[in-house]
Specification:
18 strands, 3 domains, Aldehyde Oxidoreductase, domain 3, 18 helices, 6-stranded mixed β-barrel, Barwin-like endoglucanases, 511 residues, alpha/beta
Length: 511
């Protein structure tokens, strides 16, 4: 083996959207080149190359002095056999960091700047620290609306785009923050049953107790290849699948991997993230749901209106027909929080079960009705009635079963986790407040979304009369440790406030 080459060793570590390389401290190349931990290196072999962040190890069981270890992400990207010979060099710093530094200093960036930044991020030229610098520099209100347009366009161009070759491709998206808000699983079968194309590719939960993909996975396979996705959508006019298998705006996924742990969730970045993904998925018509409430992401109506203007500005300039619905975000939607419990709620609504959550049903019909009015054959104001007829006639239920069978049906088990703890009301009165954030946190502590049967089952909603000792909700878990964590959190703060009718915050929303 030549002195300037090393053997590739696959290190079974998932570094999640970051290429990481491992060199032994006694490696001759490490010493000769003056590499340092966390520096960027370029790994090359036979025309293939990857950029990676260097980690230095002292344990030969991890990597030997003659080897270069690559994390799962980097090994897959390099795409060569384990044991192949590679060369290692210092990586050139990303030139676009100059633009990031200018933004940190308060300067305005142009389209070329954003194109360069996103291209370097996709090529793994940015470390997570450098991506964090970009996110902080562009966070909060540091992007004007033209810069937001430039960022969205750059993110859109960072990956593949789907083309369904139809004039009307519908979609909907909620900005999040409301537990149990599984309206997509009702809207999509209703709209598809009408005959409109609505290929719904959704994300998994990041900070919530369940995403659409997590909940649909209780019923059917959601990890579909692009070819499978295309076949199902062409046949059934829609789907409910995970979007991670397609390379749609990949820079967005890489930024989210850094954004979420830092708790950065600026309005501008959120708009760019949502619209780049929807446009990349081939959407031509989009409904955006913005819930407003004291513990929602958007807490005041003026914030919602400002956010709506941003969505409309960018959507208009990227030829996306976009409408924003501002909805009631004062409390969780439906009864269940967590994949199995939310799937149960969805199936109850689809089957017109008398015990189905009325708020989930109503909100889904409102959203579906607005989408149906994108159809030029549907007159304005008629969408809701058509959506209700599709649901009540059972056509939406039939369409959902068609999705499930086409994607690959799972064995149906909608029973929540057997470990169960009931949270009681501490006084007589009515429920005046439910904390969305706290309820989501309790469900996550119980094990959701990783454990499908974990979560929270709500028995009382805003305005419900209660007596002292009456059950407000049940915590469900599958493992004792999760169960104890969730109980402890609920004892600290149940997430519920009991008072009198006059203390209930009135909704600012009128459908």
């Amino acid at each position: 083996m030549a002195n300037d080459t090393l053997k590739i060793r696959r290190i079974a570590i998932d570094t999640y959207h970051e290429n990481v390389a491992y060199l032994h401290r006694d490696c001759s190349i490490y010493r000769a080149e003056g590499f340092q931990a966390l520096s960027k290196i370029q790994v090359s072999t036979n025309g293939a190359k990857v950029l990676a962040v260097l980690n230095v190890v002292d344990d030969t069981s991890i990597v030997q002095a003659c080897e270069l270890g690559l994390s799962e992400q980097a090994f897959k990207q390099l795409n060569v056999a384990e044991g192949s010979l590679v060369t290692v060099n210092h990586a050139e710093p990303p030139k676009s960091m100059d633009a990031v530094r200018r933004k940190i200093n308060g300067e305005r960036l142009d389209q070329n700047d954003f194109n360069s930044i996103t291209a370097d991020i996709v090529d793994a030229r940015y470390s997570k620290m450098e991506m964090a610098a970009f996110l902080v520099a562009t966070g909060q209100n540091n992007l004007d609306r033209d810069e937001l347009l430039f960022l969205t366009r750059a993110m859109l161009d960072s990956g593949d785009r789907m083309n369904w070759h139809e004039a009307l491709v519908a979609d909907k998206h909620c900005i999040g923050g409301i537990p149990g808000n599984r309206t997509s699983m009702l809207v999509v079968p209703i709209v598809a049953a009408h005959g409109m194309l609505i290929p719904k590719t959704s994300s998994r939960a990041i900070t919530s107790p369940a995403g659409t993909a997590d909940t649909m996975e209780v019923l059917a396979e959601v990890n579909l290849t692009p070819d499978q996705l295309n076949d199902i959508v062409r046949r059934e006019r829609g789907c409910l699948a995970w979007g991670g298998t397609a390379k749609l705006a990949p820079v967005d996924d890489m930024l989210i991997a850094v954004e979420r742990p830092l708790g950065i969730d600026s309005q501008g970045q959120m708009v760019a993230s949502i619209l780049s993904k929807k446009l990349a998925a081939g959407s031509t018509h989009l409904i955006v749901d913005i819930p407003v409430g004291p513990t929602a992401k958007v807490r005041q109506m003026r914030q919602a209106l400002a956010l709506r203007k941003l969505f409309e500005f960018v959507g208009d300039r990227l030829n996306l027909h976009l409408e924003v619905m501002i909805t009631d975000g004062r409390q969780p939607v439906g009864h269940g929080i967590g994949p199995v419990l939310e799937a149960r709620d969805v199936m109850q609504v689809l089957q017109n079960d008398p015990e189905a959550p009325a708020d989930l049903r109503q909100k889904s019909l409102q959203l579906a009705g607005r989408i149906l009015e994108f159809d030029p054959d549907v007159r304005g104001g008629q969408g809701y009635a058509i959506a209700r007829d599709i649901l009540e006639s059972g056509r939406a239920w039939v369409k959902m079963n068609a999705f499930i069978n086409a994607q690959g049906a799972k064995t149906l088990d909608l029973h929540p986790g057997q470990l169960c703890h009931e949270i009681m009301a501490v006084s007589d009165g009515v429920v005046t407040h439910i904390d969305n954030f706290q309820m989501a946190k309790i469900a996550r502590m119980a094990g959701a979304p990783m454990l499908k049967k974990a979560g929270v089952d709500l028995l009382k909603k805003l305005g419900s009369p209660v007596r002292k000792g009456e059950v407000l909700y049940r915590i469900h878990a599958e493992f004792p440790a999760d169960f104890q964590f969730a109980q402890h959190l609920a004892r600290q703060d149940s997430g519920y406030t009991i008072g009198c009718d006059e203390q209930i915050l009135k909704s600012l929303i009128e459908f």
